[in-house]
Amino acid sequence: MAVEYTIRRKVFSLLGAKFHIYDKDQDMIGFCKQKAFKLKEDIRIYTDESMSEERLTIAARAIIDFSAAYDVIDTKTGRKMGAYQRKGWSSIMRDSWIVLDANDNEVGTLKEDSAGAAIMRRFLPLGNLIPQKFHLEDSSNNHLADFRTHFNPFVHRMTVTVLCC
Predict the structure, then answer these.
(1) Which CATH number does the domain 3-162 belong to among 2.30.30, 2.40.160, 2.40.128, 2.30.29?
(2) Which of 19, 30, 38, 69 is least surrounded by CB atoms within 10 angstroms?
(3) Annotated domain spans of the chain
(4) What Pfam families does the entry give (predicted)?
């Protein structure tokens, strides 16, 4: 049975972005306030807007990196859960990421849906308004999840549908 989550971000936000994460019943299960103008990405996900209980840290390994890698850390235990790394050149026209386990072994991929739509998003005026869709697959090519953005000029919304587990 699939499980669905929604991530929302207001488009017009001064000095950083605020993300709200909701479950299928639209109950908030996570919150993130991303700081603007950070050289090295350090994303903290909390249980709610009070930011009193941290759940996850997503930290860039380097300041500027063409094939950027981000570690995902369980804040309570301090244990690295895994990572994801951008596929440098192949991500120029179509976003593509490698999903890694805690030991940096490749366990899956996250890819943008269609090369044609990806090119339009990057090069057409207002192409960024074309919704994106990503597919998560494990190393055996089993389809695990979909990430889908929705068109709305005021609120950026992404639906994450987990198909397994």
Answers:
(1) 2.40.160
(2) 38
(3) 3-162
(4) LOR
User: pLDDT of 21-38, one tens digit each?
Assistant: 999 999 999 999 887 777
Residue 3: its H or E element: strand 3-10
Kindly report the average pLDDT of the chain as a whole number: 89
Phi-psi region of 120 (alpha: psi -120 to 50; beta: other; left: phi over 0): alpha
Could you tell me whether strands 106-112 and 28-34 are parallel, antiparallel, or unpaired per DSSP bridges? unpaired
68's tokens? 């950027």
- Beta-bridge partner residues of 21: 7, 30
Proportion of the chain in helix, strand, coil states, percent, rounded to 5: 10, 50, 40
Residue-level pLDDT at 13 = 67
**What is d(CA 45, CA 91) in angstroms, rounded to the nearest whole number?**
26
With a pLDDT cut of 90, the percent of the chain lying above it is 59
Distance CA 34, CA 15 (A): 9
Residue 155 pLDDT more than 90?
no
d(CA 56, CA 78): 9
pLDDT at residue number 139: 95
Which residues, 6 or more positions from 102, have their beta carbon under 8 angstroms from its beta carbon? 79, 80, 81, 82
